[in-house]
Amino acid sequence: MGMSVYFYDVLQLMPLGTAKTCESLDELLEKSDFVTLHVPETSETKNLIDKAELYKMRKGSYLINASRGTVVNIPELAAALRCGHLSGAAVDVYPQEPGANGEGFVSELQGCPNTILTPHIGGSTEEAQSMIGIEVAGAIIKYINYGTSLGAVNFPQVNLRAINANESKIIRVIHTHHNVPGVLKEVNNILAKHNVEKQICDSTGDIAYLMADLTISEGEEDLHKLYQRIGAIPETIMTRVLY
Questions:
Q1: I need a surface site. Which of 34, 37, 156, 225 has the fewest CB within 10 A?
Q2: Which helix (H) or strand (E) holds 198?
Q3: How does pLDDT run across 180-190, given as a tens digit for each residue?
Q4: What SS3 class is residue 65?
Q5: Do the beta carbons of residue 166 and residue 243 sit within 8 Å?
Q6: How far is CA 64 from CA 9, 29, 103, 130, 140, in A?
Q7: Residues in CB range of 115: below 8 A, 6 or more apart
Q8: For residues 81 and 52, is the Cβ–Cβ distance under 8 A?
C-alpha cells in the first residue's frame, strides 16, 4: 500500500510531487502518522501544536519539530508521549536553547519514551559547511564582478543579466543610497544623456540599491565625470562603475 503525503499552509501553493493539500491543520493532524513542522517563529505560530492539536493527532503517531522551539507546547507534548497517545517524537529546537556544552539543559521531554532530542546544528555537517562555503564565495564573486546582491539578508536583493564581454560599450552603474524620495530622479537626470539598456532599483528599510546598464561612447574622462556626478548626490552611500 502506497504512502500518502499531505501538507497544510496558510498560503496554499502548488503541491510538490504527489503531496496533497489539506483544508485545515486539523485535517492534516487527523490523517497523518508522521507530522513534521516547517514554520517560522511568529505570534501566530506560538504553541501552534498545543494540547488540543496533540490529541487530534492519530493515536500512535509521531511528531517531528525542527522549525522553532515555541511552535510546540513542550509540557503537553511530554504528557502525550508519557501517556502513550503519541508513539514518539523527534525535537531539535526548544523554547530556551542550551547556552553551552555540558550540564544545565533541562527539558520536560528528557526521559520520555521513544523521544529523540538533538541540538539544532543541522548546518554543521561537513557537507553543509562545504556547500555554504561554495555558496557564499559565489555570492561574493557575483557581487564584486556584477553587483548582484541576491540572497542578501539586510540589503536590497537586486540582479540584472551579466554584462556581455563582447558589448564593450556597455557599462554598469551601481548606486547605493539612502532610501528617501527624489534620489532616483536625480540619478536618472544624470543618466538621461545615455541609452539605458536595463535598470532596476529596490530598497530594504533605509537602504536603496540601483543598478543600470548603459551604452556609453565617451572616453575615460567623461566616464569619470559621470561617476563623480552620481557620487556627489547627497544621499549617496556608495557608487561603483563596472565594465
A1: 225
A2: strand 195-204
A3: 999 999 999 99
A4: strand
A5: no
A6: 17, 12, 25, 26, 35
A7: 81, 88, 89, 90, 91, 109
A8: no
